[in-house]
Protein backbone atom coordinates (compact mmCIF):
# COMPACT_ATOMS: atom_id res chain seq x y z
CA UNK A 1 0.00 0.00 0.00
CA UNK A 2 1.38 3.37 -1.08
CA UNK A 3 0.91 6.33 1.22
CA UNK A 4 0.80 9.82 -0.10
CA UNK A 5 2.75 12.50 1.70
CA UNK A 6 1.61 16.11 1.38
CA UNK A 7 3.67 19.09 2.44
CA UNK A 8 1.85 22.03 3.89
CA UNK A 9 1.75 25.05 1.61
CA UNK A 10 3.50 27.19 4.22
CA UNK A 11 6.50 24.83 4.22
CA UNK A 12 6.73 24.96 0.43
CA UNK A 13 6.55 28.75 0.49
CA UNK A 14 9.39 28.94 3.05
CA UNK A 15 11.54 26.55 0.98
CA UNK A 16 10.91 28.53 -2.20
CA UNK A 17 11.73 31.81 -0.45
CA UNK A 18 14.98 30.30 0.89
CA UNK A 19 16.06 29.13 -2.56
CA UNK A 20 15.21 32.46 -4.21
CA UNK A 21 17.01 34.44 -1.49
CA UNK A 22 20.10 32.24 -1.78
CA UNK A 23 20.22 32.56 -5.55
CA UNK A 24 19.69 36.30 -5.41
CA UNK A 25 22.70 36.55 -3.09
CA UNK A 26 24.99 34.77 -5.56
CA UNK A 27 27.09 37.36 -7.32
CA UNK A 28 25.61 40.22 -5.32
CA UNK A 29 28.90 40.97 -3.60
CA UNK A 30 30.69 40.88 -6.94
CA UNK A 31 28.42 43.57 -8.33
CA UNK A 32 29.27 45.89 -5.44
CA UNK A 33 33.03 45.74 -6.05
CA UNK A 34 34.63 48.61 -7.92
CA UNK A 35 36.13 47.59 -11.25
CA UNK A 36 38.27 49.10 -13.97
CA UNK A 37 39.56 48.47 -17.48
CA UNK A 38 43.13 47.20 -17.81
CA UNK A 39 45.41 47.15 -20.85
CA UNK A 40 48.65 45.22 -20.51
CA UNK A 41 51.45 45.28 -23.08
CA UNK A 42 54.04 42.50 -22.95
CA UNK A 43 57.37 42.83 -24.75
CA UNK A 44 60.57 40.78 -24.75
CA UNK A 45 63.68 42.92 -25.13
CA UNK A 46 61.48 45.61 -26.71
CA UNK A 47 59.61 43.39 -29.20
CA UNK A 48 55.91 42.53 -28.70
CA UNK A 49 55.13 39.06 -27.35
CA UNK A 50 52.29 38.04 -29.67
CA UNK A 51 51.49 34.58 -28.33
CA UNK A 52 50.60 33.79 -24.75
CA UNK A 53 48.20 34.28 -21.90
CA UNK A 54 48.37 36.95 -19.20
CA UNK A 55 47.00 36.15 -15.75
CA UNK A 56 46.37 38.49 -12.84
CA UNK A 57 45.78 37.18 -9.32
CA UNK A 58 45.13 39.20 -6.17
CA UNK A 59 46.94 37.57 -3.27
CA UNK A 60 44.62 36.11 -0.66
CA UNK A 61 41.47 37.59 -2.21
CA UNK A 62 40.65 35.06 -4.91
CA UNK A 63 40.19 37.83 -7.46
CA UNK A 64 41.77 37.39 -10.85
CA UNK A 65 41.59 38.01 -14.56
CA UNK A 66 43.03 36.43 -17.70
CA UNK A 67 43.40 37.33 -21.33
CA UNK A 68 45.20 36.26 -24.50
CA UNK A 69 47.85 38.44 -26.10
CA UNK A 70 47.04 39.91 -29.52
CA UNK A 71 49.34 40.63 -32.47
CA UNK A 72 50.45 43.88 -30.80
CA UNK A 73 51.49 42.12 -27.60
CA UNK A 74 48.50 43.51 -25.72
CA UNK A 75 45.64 42.13 -23.71
CA UNK A 76 42.59 44.20 -22.80
CA UNK A 77 40.67 43.19 -19.70
CA UNK A 78 37.27 44.56 -18.74
CA UNK A 79 35.83 44.79 -15.24
CA UNK A 80 38.94 43.95 -13.21
CA UNK A 81 38.34 44.44 -9.49
CA UNK A 82 40.51 47.24 -8.06
CA UNK A 83 43.58 46.09 -6.11
CA UNK A 84 47.15 44.81 -6.24
CA UNK A 85 47.84 41.84 -8.50
CA UNK A 86 50.66 39.46 -9.30
CA UNK A 87 51.01 39.04 -13.06
CA UNK A 88 52.21 36.02 -15.02
CA UNK A 89 52.75 35.43 -18.72
CA UNK A 90 52.47 31.86 -20.01
CA UNK A 91 52.74 30.22 -23.41
CA UNK A 92 49.35 29.66 -25.06
CA UNK A 93 47.58 26.55 -23.78
CA UNK A 94 44.94 25.91 -26.42
CA UNK A 95 41.92 23.70 -25.83
CA UNK A 96 41.06 20.08 -26.57
CA UNK A 97 39.11 21.30 -29.61
CA UNK A 98 41.86 23.69 -30.69
CA UNK A 99 45.24 22.28 -29.58
CA UNK A 100 48.35 24.38 -29.98
CA UNK A 101 51.48 22.64 -31.26
CA UNK A 102 54.19 22.28 -28.63
CA UNK A 103 57.12 24.61 -29.21
CA UNK A 104 59.60 26.65 -27.27
CA UNK A 105 58.72 30.20 -26.25
CA UNK A 106 62.09 31.83 -25.51
CA UNK A 107 60.38 35.23 -25.44
CA UNK A 108 58.57 34.19 -22.24
CA UNK A 109 61.33 33.41 -19.71
CA UNK A 110 60.43 30.83 -17.06
CA UNK A 111 60.47 33.29 -14.15
CA UNK A 112 57.39 35.04 -15.59
CA UNK A 113 55.33 31.89 -16.11
CA UNK A 114 54.35 31.37 -12.46
CA UNK A 115 52.26 33.77 -10.38
CA UNK A 116 54.33 32.78 -7.33
CA UNK A 117 57.70 33.50 -8.98
CA UNK A 118 56.90 36.35 -11.35
CA UNK A 119 58.22 39.75 -10.25
CA UNK A 120 55.50 41.49 -12.28
CA UNK A 121 52.92 43.47 -10.27
CA UNK A 122 49.94 45.61 -11.27
CA UNK A 123 48.08 48.03 -9.01
CA UNK A 124 44.65 48.41 -10.61
CA UNK A 125 42.98 51.72 -9.74
CA UNK A 126 39.74 53.41 -10.77
CA UNK A 127 39.66 54.52 -14.40
CA UNK A 128 41.73 53.22 -17.30
CA UNK A 129 44.89 51.32 -16.36
CA UNK A 130 47.82 50.68 -18.69
CA UNK A 131 50.80 48.51 -17.79
CA UNK A 132 53.83 47.65 -19.93
CA UNK A 133 56.15 44.82 -18.94
CA UNK A 134 59.40 44.05 -20.77
CA UNK A 135 60.43 40.45 -20.14
CA UNK A 136 64.20 39.98 -20.02
From TrEMBL:
What is the protein name stated in its UniProt record? Carboxypeptidase regulatory-like domain-containing protein
Could you tell me which residues belong to the region Disordered? 87-106
UniProt-listed PROSITE patterns:
PROKAR_LIPOPROTEIN
The domain of life for this entry's organism is Bacteria
Q: Which organism is it from?
A: Gimesia chilikensis
Amino acid sequence: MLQRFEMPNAFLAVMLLTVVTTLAGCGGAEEGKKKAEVTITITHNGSPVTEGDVRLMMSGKGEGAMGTLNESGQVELQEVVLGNYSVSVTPPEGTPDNPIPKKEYPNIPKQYRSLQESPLKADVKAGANEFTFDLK
